[in-house]
Amino acid sequence: MANDVFIDVHAHSSVKYVYDKKDLWKSIGKPNITADISGTYTYTSSDFSRMAEGRVQVAFIPLHPIEQRATVVKDNFPKIAEKAILLLASYIAKVSRPVLDSMKTIKYNHYRHIVTERKFLEATSGRVRMIRFKNGRKQKCRYKIVKNAAEVQTILRQNRQRRSLFTIAVVLTVEGGHALGSGHLNFKYDKKIHKDSNVRLNASEKLLLRRVNYLKGIGTKPNVWHVSPLWITLAHAFKNDHFGHSQALIPLFTKTLKYAEQYRARPIPGFAGGRNKAMDSTAKKIIKRLLGIDGIRIGQGQRILIDIKHLSTKSRVQYYDILDAHHKTHPQDNIPILISHGAVNGKASVYSDPDPHDEQKDWKKSRTFNPWSFGLYNDEIIKIHNSKGLIGLIADQRVLAGGKRVKGSKLWIHRRKKRWVELITDQILHIVRTVSRARGVNSPHDAWKLITIGSDFDGGINPIDTFDTALKFSDLKKSLITQLWDKRFNPYRKRSEIKKLVDGICSKNALAFLKANY
After folding, report:
1. Domain total for the chain?
2. What is the domain extent for residue 442?
3. Predicted model pTM
4. Is residue 1 part of a domain?
5. What is the pLDDT of residues 394-404, one digit of tens each?
6. Handedness of CA 115, 159, 55, 421 (dihedral sign)
7. 129: CATH
8. Containing H/E element for 168?
């Protein structure tokens, strides 16, 4: 499928490269059976070389600082155990031990990192490389950071007309509200270094809002960004001081890491988490400033959209309230709701689940979707549809499905590819069915236009076994076409439009979203 266009709206193509300044075009490791069995992926799935060979022509790359809290283990851990954990983390994340050690100090700053990562990508943007693919074929390749949808369309047109050079359009995003400068550890007083008795790296509200302006392109050099991110994910796995997050960690980490609250466990003093919390007043100001609806410098700078992934249910409801209030007074100013790398959880309403438990045992016994609260509730799917938003489906098997469903996919060896892709088509079916059955929804068939791929490759996921790198996009497309012939889709599509619908999922839906919002 040499003429195919694939778009991934959430791929961590630089995360295993930026900290130690590695070559972005050199793939790290190879897919192997050990990774499939262990669920630990030490090779890169979305490096530029593999994306180019997989015909990924547009990549949304999140600038993402590893959270400082993720580097500290329990105080009572033996030193040898702590070293073993750090060695394992270094091996998996492909980040050197000295870098990991520096993250635990006052030297590490979340906002400074996203600026560094942006500059790291900018440094080789547009530079042509001769890349040898695994089949021996050579191809001149490059990536270019784009400023708007028009530049994306230009690159796609050049790829069609100039076969000797393949270009990947890079759309910048940001993952984690901590990236603005919150969520840091507090450090003990050291009179040789610090003047204050309590050293806090977390930025003030004033500084956070000033940095939002920089991202929007408002301000003076050298701080202002000349390419604004299209959206920002406001929460991630750990407390960031302003936005509540949903439970996102596997049990190994919730038991090991000092600050990760365990269910029904007494929080450690000074490390109360942000799980299931509401957002504070500063968070609301940040959202309004990002969207340009706070009445300050309105209309100036690029609107930066909000990605609801990782937000707690309380914080998501608060965000929807902000949008509802704005749309009531500004009905012509539509702000789309989006999730860049998510999945559905099969539950009815986000409003009825303010304090979700998200127990591991509930995931293990589920034969359908992962029931945890980071997944989309049915009423959220309808909200996204009504706002002309976007749903990027993640490739993580643990997020797509419950434990028994995943186990069933592993057992069916003779139907392995079909069973794994069904984890994605189950999501697609649920989305279009939910919208089609909703009351008062105009054009329910347009639910297909919401869906795209947001793989989260190289974001610490356990990808579905037959779709574990960007090289597999063509295989995924073929499998989706085959799956959509199934009779369970009959009420929601015509057979004559299957290829068109799959083209939408693979690229055209994301392109239409870009055209409308960038």
Report:
1. 1
2. 6-517
3. 0.93
4. no
5. 999 999 999 99
6. positive
7. 3.20.20.140
8. strand 165-175
